[in-house]
Specification:
This protein has 218 residues and is of the alpha/beta class. The strands form two sheets. A four-stranded mixed sheet has the order 1-4-3-2, sandwiched between helices. The chain is elongated. The model has no long low-confidence stretch (mean pLDDT 95).
């Protein structure tokens, strides 16, 4: 979960920016996640000890701060982060927001930053509805010990990639691409070859018979 959103400071097309967690374990899970997030070493990306570096631009950090502020004003609860670490650079602390609902800006927007929005669910059907309540659909992850549930969710989640009990695993042998606003086409695997080819249909009449009446269906 931590690497899914905070790796690369959340600046990844497959960043897991929305976390759906079963309500019965939400409080305990958030407490553990908070400790993990607050233990992340922030610093110079050229330092091998650094676990999370800065954002790419000042404009990006300003926009993330704006979305976080709007989300908190709309009812989101700040679990941790939401601040700039001391020092220079476009740094932003690992941030977790207990969203409470899927209409908050931090849930709806594709932030490309270290901000995790948490949504609770009670049933599998509710989790699926929340997962699909987005115009994007590049990558998703399902963590479960129930194999049948894993297959159901993998089938019904509208995303080009579904990881089960893992995250951020890629291979050039496997198609990669999204649904909705998350891009067109696929890269990787045979789908890449198909995307770089153009099909053509050629019809040849080899008969010596006169050309039939074109107005008669045959």
């Amino acid at each position: 979960m931590v690497a899914g959103i905070f790796a690369a400071t959340g600046q990844s097309c497959v960043a897991g920016s929305r976390l759906l967690v079963e309500r019965s374990v939400k409080d305990e899970f958030l407490a553990r996640l908070k400790r993990k997030a607050e233990a992340i070493r922030i610093g110079d990306p050229q330092d091998p000890a650094t676990e999370m570096g800065p954002l790419a631009t000042l404009r990006q950090r300003d926009w993330i701060e704006k979305v976080v502020a709007e989300s908190l004003a709309a009812g989101g609860m700040l679990v941790t982060g939401g601040t700039r670490p001391a020092g220079s650079g476009f740094y932003y602390a690992p941030t977790i927001i207990d969203a409470g609902g899927s209409d908050l800006p931090c849930v709806r927007e594709e932030l490309f930053g270290p901000v995790l929005s948490v949504l609770a669910f009670d049933t599998e059907a509710q989790a699926l509805a929340l997962a699909n309540d987005t115009p994007f659909g590049l990558a998703s992850g399902v963590f479960t010990s129930n194999l049948a549930r894993a297959h159901r969710m993998a089938r019904d989640i509208r995303a080009g990639v579904v990881w089960v009990n893992t995250y951020r695993v890629v291979s050039p042998l496997v198609p990669f691409g999204g649904y909705g606003l998350s891009g067109l086409g696929r890269e990787g695997g045979l789908d890449t070859i198909r995307d770089y080819t153009r099909s053509k249909s050629v019809w040849i009449n080899t008969s010596d018979e006169p050309i039939p009446d074109p107005f008669v269906m045959r």
